[in-house]
Amino acid sequence: MPRLVRALFRPCRIGVTRRGPCYFAYAMSGDAKSADTARCAAVCAKFAAAGYYQLLGMEPSSDEPGRACVRMPFRPSLTQLYGGVHGGAVLSIADAAVNLALATTLADGENTATVDLSLSFVAPVGARDLEARASLTKRGRRVSFAECTITAGGEEIARGKAVLYLSPARKP
Fold first, then answer.
1. In whole angstroms, how far apart are CA 76 and each of 51, 88, 91, 130, 151?
2. For every one of its 172 residues, what pLDDT tens digit does the chain have, with 9 covering 90 and above?
3. Which of 4, 95, 126, 145 has the fewest C-beta atoms lying within 10 Å of its C-beta?
4. What are residue 87's phi and psi, to 5 degrees?
5. What string of DSSP letters covers 5-58?
6. How many angstroms separate the CA atoms of 147 and 160, rounded?
7. 154-159: which pairs have CB atoms within 8 A and are 24 or more residues apart?
8. What is the DSSP letter of 122?
9. Is 172 contained in some domain?
10. CA distances from 154 to 59, 74, 144 (A)
11. Torsion angles phi and psi, residue 46, rounded to 5
């Protein structure tokens, strides 16, 4: 990247790629920041329209590329035998959040899929609303890594780590 152009951009928090530092289009003007916000909103709208996420009642949001928040209000249909939210629903919200965090960085035509997701429960969920906050820790050309924290009623109930596959846009 030419020096003059590089001066207008700042390195992203995600790290370094094989080709050098990873740069997102955060120009010093507010125009690029608002463009990123608009793109994140468009990705969230597409996410919210997906059937499975609607079935679980997930509500996505993202303010910047590489970060995402997904909320899932408590519903009795999400409970297990003992009345708390089922662990599968908790894993679903974690998976949705890490994929949304990566999706906010994708170019047109690129897709993402989960390769591996591990979740460690640290407290019972109970019958409370869930919120998952995810961020990319490294974005590669084909494989990316993300972390996620899930809270219920403000209390941390689980932490997750994910390996995500990034499929490139197909050439016409």
1. 19, 14, 17, 13, 18
2. 333 333 333 444 444 444 444 444 444 355 666 788 888 888 899 999 999 999 999 999 998 999 999 999 999 999 999 999 999 999 999 999 999 999 999 988 899 999 999 999 999 999 999 999 999 999 998 999 999 999 999 999 999 999 999 998 776 6
3. 4
4. -60, -30
5. HHHT-EEEEEEEETTEEEEE---SSHHHHHHHHHHHHHHHHHHHTSHHHHHHT-
6. 6
7. 155/123, 156/122, 156/123, 157/90, 157/121, 157/122, 157/123, 157/124, 157/125, 157/130, 158/90, 158/94, 158/119, 158/120, 158/121, 158/122, 158/123, 159/119, 159/120, 159/122
8. -
9. no
10. 17, 14, 28
11. -65, -40
For residue 2, the one-letter residue type is P
DSSP conformation class of 79: B
The CATH number assigned to the domain holding 137 equals 3.10.129.10
- Its domain, for residue 141, covers 3-167
Alpha-carbon span 66 to 104, nearest angstrom: 6
CA–CA dist 86, 9 (Å, integer): 43
Q: Residue 115 corresponds to which amino acid? A: V
In one-letter notation, the amino acid at residue 27 is A
